[in-house]
Amino acid sequence: MKTALQKIYVILGKQDKEQLDRLCRLLWSLFSYVNLTSNLYLVSASLVDGMSQVEYIQKAVNAFLRANLFARVYVHFVHRAPRATAEEMDFYYQYYYQNWKRATREFDHEGYMHQEIPRLMLLPIIVPDDRVEPTALAGLLGRLKSAFMLPGLYLDKGTSFLARYEDLLARVEKVYYGHGHGGQPADILCNLCREDIFHDTSAKLEPDPVSMAEPCPAALIISGPEGKMYVCVDAFLKKESLADIDGDLDPEAVMARYHERRNGQRGCLACRERGVVSFSDVSLPKGATHEVGDLLYYFGTLHQEAENHVQAMERYEKSLKLSPVEEADPIYFRLGLSYTKTGRYDEALEAFKKAEKTYRDQYYFHFYAGLCYFQKGDYGVAIEKFSKAADMKPQQEDMVRVLIYMGTCYNRLGEYEEAVLHLGRARHKAGGVREIYSALGFSYFQMKDYDRAIEHLKMAVELDPHSAMDYASLGANYREQGDMNMAIAMYNKAMALDPSMPSAKDNLERLKKTVNEQQLLSLQNNLGYHFKDIRFLSEAVRHSSYVNELQEPALKDNERLEFLGDAVLDLVVTHTLMNHFPETREGDLSRMRATIVNESQLAMVAQKLHLGDHLLLGRGEALSHGGEKSSILADALEAVIAAVYLDGGLEAAFEVVTRQFSELMAHVGERLLAEDFKSRLQEFVQAKFKTIPQYSVEAETGPDHDKKFEIRLTVGTLLTTRGTGKSKKAAEQAAARVALDKLQGDAK
Amino acid sequence: MFPIRRGTVNVLLIEINPFAPASPPISLGYISAFLQSKGFRVKILTLGEDTSVSCTSLHQLITGFRPALVGLSAYQRTLLYVIGLARFIKSVDNKIKIAIGGPQATFMPSAGFAQLHDVDYVCRSSGEATLLAIARAINEGAPFSDLSGVSYKNADGGIHDTDALEGFADLDSYPSPYLNDVFDYSRMREAIMLTSRGCPHHCIYCYTPHAFQHKVTFHSTDRVIEEIKWIRKKGVRKLWFADPNISYKWARFQELLDRILTEGLETKMWLQTRADLVNPALMKKMKQAGVSTIAFGLESASEQVMPRLDKEVSIDKVAEAIRLAQSQDIEVELFTMFGLPYETFEDAMITLEFVKKNNVKIMGNTNSQQMQIYFGTHMAGHYEDYNIRPLNTKRPPYLSIGCQYETDHMSMDEINRIQDLWRAHSLDRGRRIVS
Ligand code: B12
Ligand code: SF4
């Protein structure tokens, strides 16, 4: 069966006959959907304006009751009470309420005849003015009560003082509470609805709090002034109207939509919570205040479970103010948990302390206190708390947690043996927990037992292959063992898993640096020069690809040094050649120098120095074997020469270059001669005879892999020579050499 | 004419009480299980203060289920609502036949029936067999043939009484509402159990002995144990025994408790019995089996009133039974009444004082109430002999005096005063559970 309407709330508008007619026709059609026992709330700004409308609506109610003998209706007329003297109140009573009361006569009689409560009950709810005269009001309430119009009283901030008048309260059936001051009928209506929701929510707390997500008791709100209907107070506040007031409305369609809207995603739990929160600063009677406290606590737990600790704390803090002292401990405890989760450890400890009486026999109480001290870095006290928790023999899983924390505390205190002891117990209880191995790894590392540390850390990463920290720790252990490659590999892994991990990044950098420095030492040995300031050399081996990748603006690549080194090398080589070949002309010297200072020769020198091993390259370059590329090697060598020059001056640079290039320079004369007969011949012939030598192949013999060429050289008609060689070029050189010898000999 | 098959019409059973939360009615449960076993489709509708039901949903239920017969339980205090429902049902489909049964129907005079315009049958006493006969008659298309234990109105409104019908002597002949899953267990917090019916005593205000001809009939222990097992399986962990005197036969009750204990069926239990039907050993066993509350009928603690109620239980006996229960830490409830014959205001005060003195909490069933004069009781037939003056001479004939009376010894005013006093001492503002 579809849920029947339990309550209909109506805000009465102006006294407009037509509007009222429409409203009555609407109510009449809705009565078919109201519950066996239903409540009609008619809210008006004033007694005088409201009463005539109430009486009109009452006729429809009576007709409905007459037609359905099993139906019962409570009519609540909610209205402001005029500020009045006792006599004036008396007048109002006689003139207004008594008239209204006539409507119940037939039902009072029927009730009497059937020995039951009448099916129609009139319940005026009076909203007093804040300057009301309590005795006058009490008089009115008394008269209403004795006429069996059980009155209710609506109190808000301005009138809550009336709750102190006991004889006033003795005459009322129910007190309603609103927050804020006075307010319009719409505000009063909202508060009535909210109070209802609050009671319903409170009733659900004990048996089944999950049912709080369900809609509140089926109600309908009709706003006369707006001419609209709403499915609930939430919809009313959000102005999501269900339909316009219209006496000719199809009630079936409206009610179908009503149920659809109510059961759709209304967010009833949140609405209930808002209702409860709105009652948290209303001065309610003690019992109700405690209920609000209970509910706030419950909503706090919901937020806490959803990890919304800020909201949870707000609820708990409010709940504490409203709940009886006897019930405070669980609230303090929960509050402490949320404080812990938000890093407010001191406040958490204070809250825990307040919950101590109830919780001190619970291991988790000491555990959480320990956690706070742990987080505060007070490891000594933390250990005390944790061991108290451990003494209470928590269940397996929690025991393991306690032991891990204890171990970690000892680690932090530098008491590694103790740490190993506790962590060992934890491992004994639960084999598969990463944290245990991780912490043990730390202990052993500190105890310099790197093998054991590595063994445990390997377990840790096996249990959780995504644990960057454990990889970093492994790195540290390998580093200490001197296995730099493994160390770097581990750090790289850590960085790949968690690029933001600062310690890994630092360590990796530092490690690379030490490796680098170690390696630079061998480079220096090879160079035969030891730097005063190694930074020059470091810069020299830093290729631009590496610097680009790191994106560190402070870090320089070796290009500027290379630029300088080029000049230094030129200077030193030129100077040396000048010394070696005092006879040789400038052109030849230039050529000699070119045979030394060129990419391939420099690369060869660099290779001899194993410079490639020391180069810092970007990942891309490293992958494409950049350390073997002639251009990179040559440039780097120049940079290294510049570095020597900057560190030790020209003398040092001179020494290094001559040492590294001595062999090349020793043979440079021969090589130059050997290699360049062709161009020397051409120079000579051109200058002397204004012609150029001509070469032609005379013969080409031998198999492909062992060819022999014979070249004929002619210089005009002056001379013909022949040369043989394994290549055309070699054969040409041979021919040119013979020709040059002849011509130079002739010239002498 | 189409041939009508046997046992095919639908029967709707309704219990309405808008003043209390709905609880699955064991009486209708029995009737339902019985009719179902004879091939009828039966639905039970319980309308309480917490049931959500409107005219529209009722209308939908009736047009959806299409019952040929609707049976309503009638109590003195709910009769107005029964009348209302009957009228409503006839307005939906006036071919639907309406029967009432239960305590208010069993001894309702014809004059009362005559004024229940929408009611076709009044079933007297146990409803299983009476309603079956009616359902069968309707099914056959001859709605008034072969009836017994029933009064009916024929087409021109004439009232006819049929011969009385006695219920089965062996209660196990009635199929179990529990074992036949008549009720919805999902919302059931406690199960109303019934291991026996009727009472042989002669308390002058009581309806039960007359309704059951002063006989007591029983279910076998096997059947009760089977039901308890089933109910526990369904997750219900509280039993409420409606037997007037569950310990009427000591040996049988002892056996029941023993089996609960040996078969591990301990369950929280509420039960009521006479104060002269308990002893220390039994009480101890009750406690072990899970009895948390026991209710005794005290009625009055005045030595000058009590003997005149023909209850034949002494006030000392009640005090002793209270101590027995309390020594076992079993909660005690006491049924008491005021406005009894020969009772003065001072007598009534003695009852209140007795309850307080014996440390019985005034709440729930211990909240006292005015004696109700119901049809069928000795009192209803002889109230004048006890100097009782009805206050409402224009009472509808389908209702008995109820509480609308005063006595030579207590005026209406005094009755109201004692009522207010009880209420003032009540821990729950006087809300009763059983009448
Ligand atoms: C248990 C009980 C309750 C329980 C019911 C629990 C439940 N969910 O079943 C509760 C606590 C809810 C209860 C409430 C009330 N009870 Co009561 N209750 C009893 C009690 C102690 C036992 C009833 C019982 O189960 N008997 C066993 C069954 C098998 O018998 P039965 O109920 O009479 O039902 C059989 C017949 O009467 C008949 N029958 C019943 N209904 C119908 C309907 C149809 C259509 C037909 C054909 C036959 C039929 O067939 C049934 C099976 O054989 C009796 C006292 C007594 N010893 O009988 C009082 C009693 C029945 N209750 C009584 C009263 C007054 C009430 C209340 C009105 C009290 C109140 N002020 O609210 C309410 C009304 C309940 C309602 N729904 O309308 C009175 C009735 C007197 C009267 N003439 O009205 C009795 C007789 C107690 C007394 N004071 O003497 N009650
Ligand atoms: S009051 Fe109890 S003992 Fe007396 S007749 Fe009724 S059921 Fe039997």
Structure report:
The complex is a heterodimer of chains A (748) and B (435). Chain A is an alpha/beta fold. Among the domains of chain A are: 5-271, TIM Barrel, CATH 3.20.20; 528-672, Ribonuclease iii, N-terminal Endonuclease Domain, Chain A; 677-747, Double Stranded RNA Binding Domain, CATH 3.30.160.20. Helices cover 63% and strands 10% of the residues of chain A. Chain A contains 35 helices and twelve strands. In chain A, the strands form two sheets. A nine-stranded mixed sheet of chain A has the order 6-5-4-3-2-1-7-8-9, with helices on both faces. Chain B is an alpha/beta fold and 435 residues long. Chain B folds into two domains: 10-161, Response regulator (Rossmann fold); 184-425, Aldolase class I (TIM Barrel, Alpha-Beta Barrel). Chain B has 14 helices and 17 strands. Chain B has helices at 26-37, 55-65, 79-92, 103-106, 110-115, 127-140, 208-211, 221-233, 250-262, 280-289, 315-327, 345-357, 378-382, 412-425; strands at 10-17, 41-48, 69-73, 97-101, 121-123, 150-153, 159-161, 191-193, 196-197, 217-218, 238-241, 268-273, 291-299, 331-338, 369-370, 388-390, 405-407. In chain B, the strands form four sheets. Chain B has a seven-stranded mixed sheet, with helices on both faces. Chain B has a six-stranded parallel sheet with strand order 8-11-12-13-14-15. In chain B, strands 9-10 form a two-stranded antiparallel sheet. In chain B, helix 11 links the parallel strand 13 and strand 14 (331-338). In chain B, helix 1 crosses helix 6 (127-140) and helix 12 runs parallel beside helix 14. The mean pLDDT of chain B is 93. Classes of the chains: A alpha/beta (748), B alpha/beta (435). Chains A and B meet through strand 2 and helix 4 of A and helix 2 and helix 3 of B. The complex binds cobalamin and iron/sulfur cluster (SF4). The site of iron/sulfur cluster has 10 residues of chain B, from helix 7. Residues 199, 201, 203, 206, 208-209, 244, 274, 297, 311 of chain B line the site of iron/sulfur cluster.
